[in-house]
Amino acid sequence: MQPMRHEGGQVIIRQGEPGSRLHVLTSGRVEVRVHTDGEEGVAVATLREEDCFGEMSLLTGDPISADVVAAEDSETLALDRGTFNALVAANPHVLREFARMISRRLHATDVAIGTAREREQELARFVREQKSERYRDLVGRHPVAKELGGQIEREAQLDSPLLIQGERGTGKELIARLIHFRSRRKDAPLLSLECAQISEITWGDKLFGDYHRREPGRPHPRAFCYMDLAEGGTLLLKNIDALPLAVQERLVRFLNSQLQALGGRRRDVRVIATYRGGLTDMTRGGQALPDLVNALSEHVIAIPPLREHKRDIPELASHFVRKHAQRLNKQVNGLDDQAVIQLVSYDYRIANVQELEEAVERAVILAEDETIKAEEVFLGSPPAARPMGFNLLKLPRPVVQLALRLFPRVVQGFVAVVFAFVLYQCFFAPTRGGENLGTLLVWSVWWPMLVLSFFFVGRAWCAVCPMSLAGTTAQRAINLKWRIPAWLKDCDAYIIMAGFFAVIWAEEVAGMRHDARATGFLLLFILGGAVVTSVVFPRRTWCRHICPLGGVASLCSTSALVELRPTVDICAAKCKGHSCYKGDQGVDGCPMFNHVMFMDSNQHCALCMNCVRACPNGSPQLNLRPPARELWAGLSARPEVGRFVAFLMGLLVGQILIQYWERQPYGPLSRLLNERRFVFVTGVLALSAALPLLSLWLATRRLRRSPDPAIAAQFWRKVAAWAPLVTAGFVCYQLSFALGLDSLQATLGYQPLDSGATRSVSFSLLSVAWFGVLSAGLAVTAGVLWKLRQVREGDEQKRWVGEGP
Question: Domain Cyclic nucleotide-binding, which positions (predicted)?
């Protein structure tokens, strides 16, 4: 025997060649690799010391059946064919030993094949059980669901090609799987294939395999294709219009029984295709061949969108609650009535049942009790991607960390101390010269600064408001967590308008700017409302649905220079725990019932930065932006916003008129104001607030009869576009009471060329401030109206259809 050395990776004997030697492995390790139709061998065995190979070809005279490759540096003793034949002829018992060895190898191979087949069957059974459990039955009692159930039963008895039509998320794959698992093919494979992933290549395609062509000088294997893998079962082709035209031709021939597999054997595969449009839409634009449409048109199931059978939504939602609560191991039993109403009121035009399931799954994750509340249900799509401006959170990390430590807690503590001092001044400090320090701080410092801040930082005041601090402190001590009444959420805009009217009315009737006690009682009233609602309801219900000042801040913040928005891609790809809403260790969830992923407006964001602290993925962005961008690019303009704009505009006019008559000592209206202040102020404010609302109501009567929602959308967004100018007017009105601003004068001197005398022009700084603020408000409003003209009508309808109050 001749000793031989083999390097790792060396082919010792090659498949298909005549055998010339018997090898006995003395050291190392080799692999037996079999080539079928593929170019790369499959390792079927590993041989070690004292094993031999090459004997089968020597005994039978057939070519070598497999490659033997050195897996590592190895050594063998080789016996050539002549010596081997002489040895076998002289010693017959050697042949018997080879026969026993081959028998043992065949037995081991049979056991391995049987084990692999058993594992394959168990895996197939496991997959079938998982799929059948996931797609057990249709949910719903609407006639639509019953009709679909009948169609499923009928199609399950057939083997004909089937087309399932329906919008995105209507359950086309569910219907296909139900048909498969109720058919005679239920124990065979069900393969789902996205047609957009199939591409025609030189050798063929993944659906049908190769074209039986070979490139000269290069053997080409016939690889398995989806038709082979789905043999005896069902092949689900999703979005059939995305299939390449060349592959569509092969599919047409297959469906017409003209395409056969190798060897002439017909493939036994049922084809089910899905499409998001109608049959007439398939041939438009050359997306599908007419022959393919004809082949699929005999058996069609059309699934209606969810908005056409909304009666099934409560049952579907309950099903999804049970499903995801079990998966997440959470004790969530269902949805309250308000949550169900919210789900039923939405139209699900983005993804139908899939969109409903995603909303319910998110609500199960966010649920704090056994029953899902309406505040935990978020519907609609995240805000569309748009230029975000400069993200202030991208400033140097030490600066951001310092700012987050100071704001809002440290600032809120300072404001609380000032607030306590103001209350003390209002009730206990003496009034000197007809003025009280508390009233001066409230009406001449705080109010002007507060309204001016809306232009720059939106509702940031709400994050440091002493009323919210008192409410949060009381809530930590005791919180009944009553459910927020539906009427409160549905009518919150009108409650806020009524509350703000009451504040302005009390301010003007009682002359609070000069009455310390009246000012103190007003502050205590607001403080008491915040504390009581915080004890009774969850989070900051007062700030979100009731607070009059918060409502004004909500409207004015639409014109702000900053916004808090999500990084939608991060939310969609990384968010698992929804910490922005639920909170995290040491950080409370959003007090305003917001989820960062769905933030598209400043109206209900207090800029408390809890989401920034809680989000582990860094999704929130605090952006500098063009003022009022959300009024033309966002989804926040609703009828209530337009009515609030008209209400504030009229109320502002009433306040300006009252202020004018107060400063005019003569005239019948001035005398009437002094003599009948209660009646006169009430009448002026009520009339000035009611007239714009009445005008809007008359203007929208014709809109309500219009079948096109885009017309109403355009109207209300144009009304909301006046919010910056109304905010500017409100700022100017409050600046007129700013401490000492009306007494400051500026003088400009100049000398004409034709005269040696110096002349001067004096003007009030208050007038300059008025001019600057009003000019800014007018410019922003004009810019919003100009941008709205560029919005296409189709985009308007897309943004407004299904939008509720």
Answer: 1-105
CATH (domain of 75): 2.60.120.10
- List, in order, residues 6 or more apart from 723 with CB less than 8 Å away: 555, 556, 558, 559, 628, 631, 641, 645, 781
What is the Cα–Cα distance from 14 to 65, expressed in whole angstroms? 8
413 and 366 in a common domain: no
**Amino acid, res. 372:** I
Cβ neighbours of residue 475 closer than 8 Å, sequence gap 6 or more: 534, 535
At 719, is the pLDDT very low, low, confident or very high (cuts 50, 70, 90)?
very high
Q: Can you tell me the distance from the alpha carbon of 753 to that of 610, in angstroms, rounded to the nearest whole number?
A: 63
Q: What is the tens place of the pLDDT at every residue in 662-704? A: 888 778 888 888 889 999 999 999 999 999 999 999 988 877 7
Query: What's the predicted TM-score (pTM) here?
Result: 0.75
At residue 432, the 3 state secondary structure works out as strand
CB atoms within 10 A of CB 575: 20
What mean pLDDT comes out for the span 405-418? Answer: 95
Domain range holding 159? 135-304
| Separation in Å, CA 451 to CA 65, 407, 520, 526, 556 | 89, 20, 20, 17, 8
Whole-number Å distance between alpha carbons of 349 and 802: 8
Hey, which bits of 63-181 come out as E strands?
67-70, 74-80, 162-165
- Helices 92-134/172-181 angle, 10° precision: 130
296 and 319 part of one domain: no
CA atoms within a 13 Å half-sphere pointing along the CA-CB vector of 731:
30
Task: Please indicate whether residue 516 or residue 638 has the higher confidence score (pLDDT).
Answer: 516
Same domain, 473 and 589: yes
> Is residue 716 assigned to a domain?
yes
What does the alpha-carbon distance between residue 345 and residue 342 come to, in Å, rounded to a whole number? 5
455 shares its domain with 520: yes
Verify that 171 and 237 share a domain, yes or no: yes
- In a domain? residue 632: no
Q: How many CB atoms lie within 10 A of CB 56?
A: 17
Residues 328 and 291 reside in one and the same domain: no
Q: Which two tokens stand for residue 309?
A: 């059978």
191, exposed or middle or buried, with CB in 10 Å at 0-12, 13-18, 19+?
Answer: middle
Amino acid at 103: S
Element (H, E) at 193: strand 190-194
- Are 279 and 324 in a shared domain? no
